[in-house]
């Protein structure tokens, strides 16, 4: 059993295990019965200027691998049905380009404005980090439903490199800017 974080909580992955290199970031949620949503997980690989250095450093359902081969999105889950992680991001920490300082993990609802979908139609949302080699859950952040009810998209967490150590930050920051809003934020 890993560390349970609360909103804003931080965890130093490198201090937990100096040999840790391959991790899986699992993002999960359950639909409140009677609802249907298509949620999409994305990763923005950010440089020291707070921007992606090239379009390919935005990893999502239409770009499943980063150009440095360090980040891989395992694919889009369009229904969220079933137990466990609904979408997974694999990270090979030692392969992450030196120009990248931070990974930002975002989940957005596809076509939320037209369909009037929002995170209030979900329950049991979380992000967790698992050591791929040992299958051990390192840390987990269960989002508090009262913090995301009215939003259409959410930054679940950040993985930040500080002095060659990786720190996870449980963000839980909701918004209504949509996927394009995040793209604009990290590209312009």
TrEMBL record:
Positions of the TerD domain: 1-186
Keywords in alphabetical order: Tellurium resistance
Matching CDD domains: TerD_like
Gene Ontology terms: biological process: response to tellurium ion
Keyword Disulfide bond attributed: no
Extent of the signal sequence: none
InterPro entries cross-referenced by the UniProt entry: Stress/Tellurium_Resist, TerD
Name this protein carries in UniProt: TerD family protein
PANTHER family registered for this protein in UniProt: CAMP-BINDING PROTEIN 1-RELATED (PTHR32097)
